[in-house]
């Protein structure tokens, strides 16, 4: 039988700094409200991705995507299974799909807003929320198109144990670079060195971090920045001539209502260096190229995935802040449901 109701989580109020318990609220919707039109499909959500960029979507500010509105379902990339199709839909019942579905158990989505996924050898569907999804695409194009990393160069990655950072480290190794990561716990540092083969990983909470950084890095050619703040300042002090700084994120400042910019930017002049930001959505037409290369790494074992799975849609609001405290271990996702019931009523 199909459910009578389903749950959604909507934005209740905009946070000023950190995400609070009452930032979001749960809503119960009647299943009968879901009407599948032409070239549409009803999708039951299985997994949702939690990403640092979601904090920026809560601000009422101009950005690359409009802010989530008060009362609107929280925006999120996710996976799901098609359980009903409208007339003219290109999908079939049972298809596994990927799209910007949001924090909901069910959604009616336009065909053009989602894509069918078929995991390549060595991967599973959930990898499309990690190495084969937005984190992997961000790592690939940020490193190769913006960072222009070359074999033999020194690559430094902040937030190295995060979803994007871990892929950057592994792609850097595949490219023949000397890779140095930065993380916030001894467990994360050990995982990066032991399991991912990163040459050296530094704990930024260590009292000797600045000295350790200088000794381990020397001077860097590419700095892939996921953190901003003091670590970005430190990286700017260790630039090689013609270095490239890839501005992917600034998680240290996402909850700061008055973030500060870098004071050491003049080093960019003296070292003829570049500092460039990018948005991965601009590379959407090139995703298949990156998926193909990363899939090869998944198949041969040179690229690995790691997940932190939170059970239940209702726990998404309390799980999202884990990204900003560094409490997650691996790509943070929410499991919303198991494989759906494919009853005739659906």
Report on the architecture of this protein.
It is built from ten helices and 15 strands. The strands form three sheets. Strands 3, 4, 5, 6, 7, 14 and 15 form a seven-stranded mixed beta sheet that branches. A six-stranded parallel beta sheet has the order 10-9-8-11-12-13, sandwiched between helices. It has a two-stranded antiparallel ribbon with strand order 1-2. The protein has helices spanning 53-57, 134-146, 163-174, 186-194, 209-217, 229-236, 267-270, 287-300, 316-319, 322-325; strands at residues 5-11, 24-30, 40-49, 78-85, 96-99, 106-110, 114-116, 154-157, 178-183, 200-203, 220-225, 239-247, 274-277, 307-311, 331-335. The mean pLDDT is 94. With 346 residues, it is of the alpha/beta class. The chain folds into two domains: 5-130 and 306-335, Alpha-Beta Complex (Quinone Oxidoreductase, Chain A, domain 1); 134-300, 3-Layer(aba) Sandwich (Rossmann fold). The chain is globular, with a radius of gyration of 21 Å. The chain starts with a strand and ends in an 11-residue tail after the last strand. 24% of the residues lie in helices and 25% in strands.
Strand-helix topology:
Layout: E1 5-11, E2 24-30, E3 40-49, H1 53-57, E4 78-85, E5 96-99, E6 106-110, E7 114-116, H2 134-146, E8 154-157, H3 163-174, E9 178-183, H4 186-194, E10 200-203, H5 209-217, E11 220-225, H6 229-236, E12 239-247, H7 267-270, E13 274-277, H8 287-300, E14 307-311, H9 316-319, H10 322-325, E15 331-335
GO molecular function, one term: oxidoreductase activity, acting on the CH-CH group of donors, NAD or NADP as acceptor
Domain Enoyl reductase (ER): 29-334
Protein name: Enoyl reductase (ER) domain-containing protein
